[in-house]
């Protein structure tokens, strides 16, 4: 008897595969409007500083998708899972992933985003694009909307916080300010009663409780350069403020809204935040990204299977 075959659409923001693809990627983010030469140079320079001739960012996502497929098939041997990528701003786009599933004869699928926290502007947009493509193809697809309090996710993040605190030699953990961060979004989501900020705070609180961290706060990072206001305070402003007003000398940054190493972690945190911390005389560390951590892979496997009534 053949196994029930399930397609899994693994969605994420996407990133270029090489320096040569940056312009096309940036143009897609800007809804078809090419960046000015100055804007393109600024973005290319940022990538250049983190990749050093090798472009690892896309590989992170590829490995996550491959490892999730292995985990699902290992955890649920009675089913047959096949994972497909669907990216927001790069190929294969979300629509490509859905079409490939249909072309492969998949009739039943689950969509999950490599982001634990739901916002109508992020995860909601991914789901809408997938649904609109799947419906005319006769593909039945259910979606994981969020998994921000899954016990294994909180455990994985907590282990990283505990490990990173050890890097502050001779400093008591309660003398280290832990700052959880996530990608900012336009402020207008607050008027929409979007759950994104609340879910991020809930995850941060759960990690703080599990690790026994008492000195912590939340900050936003990587806001877009647009006319509309974005959620704040920004992490750079927070570092300045706690240094000036509270004389904080040791900071552990936990980018809780990100699940892999990419530009917002490797540049915005490891270069920009570190440069500011050095200028202020602060010792700043960050937690390691989840990437293909087995606990994160099991988290994703669980929430996908939940949609099928298999977990």
TrEMBL record:
Q: Know the name of this protein?
A: Coproporphyrin III ferrochelatase
| A matching Pfam family | Ferrochelatase
Organism annotation:
Paenibacillus hemerocallicola
Pathway per its UniProt entry is: Porphyrin-containing compound metabolism; protoheme biosynthesis
The reactions it catalyses are: Fe-coproporphyrin III + 2 H(+) = coproporphyrin III + Fe(2+)
What does the record give as the function of this protein?
Involved in coproporphyrin-dependent heme b biosynthesis. Catalyzes the insertion of ferrous iron into coproporphyrin III to form Fe-coproporphyrin III.
Similarity field: Belongs to the ferrochelatase family.
* Main location as per UniProt: cytoplasm
**EC id:** 4.99.1.9
Return the NCBIfam families for the record: hemH
Instruction: State where the protein is found.
Output: Cytoplasm
Write out the residues that bind Fe(2+): 183, 264
Keywords of this protein's UniProt record, alphabetized? Cytoplasm, Heme biosynthesis, Iron, Lyase, Metal-binding, Porphyrin biosynthesis
Question: Which gene underlies this protein?
Answer: cpfC
User: Record's HAMAP family?
Assistant: Ferrochelatase
**Which GO MF terms are attached to this record?**
ferrochelatase activity; metal ion binding
**Entry binding sites for Fe-coproporphyrin III:** 13, 30, 46-47, 126
| Cellular component terms (Gene Ontology) | cytoplasm
State the SUPFAM superfamilies in the record.
Chelatase
């Amino acid at each position: 008897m053949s196994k029930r075959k399930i397609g899994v659409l693994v969605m994420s923001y996407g990133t270029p595969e090489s320096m040569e693809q940056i312009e096309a990627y940036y143009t897609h983010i800007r809804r078809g409007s090419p960046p000015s030469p100055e804007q393109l140079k600024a973005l290319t320079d940022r990538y250049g500083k983190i990749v050093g001739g090798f472009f690892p960012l896309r590989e992170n996502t590829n490995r996550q998708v491959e490892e999730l497929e292995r985990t699902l098939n290992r955890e649920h041997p009675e089913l047959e899972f096949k994972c497909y990528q669907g990216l927001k701003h790069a190929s294969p786009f979300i629509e490509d992933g859905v079409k490939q599933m249909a072309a492969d004869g998949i009739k039943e699928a689950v969509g999950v985003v490599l982001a634990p926290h739901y916002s109508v502007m992020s995860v909601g947009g991914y789901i809408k694009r997938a649904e609109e493509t799947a419906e005319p193809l006769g593909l039945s697809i259910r979606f994981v909307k969020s998994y921000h309090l899954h016990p294994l996710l909180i455990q994985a993040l907590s282990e990283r916080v505990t490990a990173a605190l050890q890097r502050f030699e001779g400093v008591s953990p309660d003398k280290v300010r832990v700052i959880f961060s996530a990608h900012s979004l336009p402020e207008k989501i607050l008027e929409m009663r979007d759950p994104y900020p609340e879910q991020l705070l809930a995850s941060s609180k759960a990690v703080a409780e599990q690790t026994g961290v008492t000195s912590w706060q939340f900050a936003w990072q990587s806001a877009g350069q647009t006319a509309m206001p974005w959620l704040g305070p920004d992490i750079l402003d927070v570092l300045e403020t706690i240094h000036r007003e509270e004389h904080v000398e040791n900071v552990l940054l936990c980018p809780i809204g990100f699940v892999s190493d990419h530009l917002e972690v490797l540049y915005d945190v490891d270069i920009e935040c570190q440069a500011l911390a050095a200028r202020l005389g602060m010792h700043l560390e960050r937690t390691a990204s989840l990437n293909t951590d087995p606990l994160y892979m099991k988290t994703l496997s669980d929430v996908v299977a939940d949609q099928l009534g298999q977990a």
